[in-house]
Amino acid sequence: MNIVDTSLWIEYFSGRLVNESVKNVAEDKVNLIVPTICIYELYKKSLIEHGETRAKTIVGIMQNGTNVVNLDEEIAKTAAMFSKEHKLPMADSVIYATAKTYNAIIWTQDKHFEGLNSVKYFSKTRKH
Known about the structure:
- It is a single chain.
- The chain is of the alpha/beta class.
- The chain has six helices and five strands; from the N terminus they run βααβααβααββ.
- The chain starts with a strand and ends in a 7-residue tail after the last strand.
């Protein structure tokens, strides 16, 4: 199973993919898990930058045919432990706890995940 972090969803929807394998992972709906916190982050960013219609479209594509995972009590408690242990912000700790719960790999450009187990990290390229 795989989780595409919000940082790479942004790249995916902008057409600036870091790596072709990210596109394949994002489009492999059978093996894709989408934590609800990623929906929140992407929807909020899309609302601000593109408006409600585009935000709904983007999130609809993101969710369609995937395994959407809600934040439940166990994931919340596990996330709190990971936040303390790895000094992760709340959203990142929820994503990491979801990945650990479902034995998934996180695909990300978010530096907070760099060096953690079960993470495929891609450094951000400089924009000219």
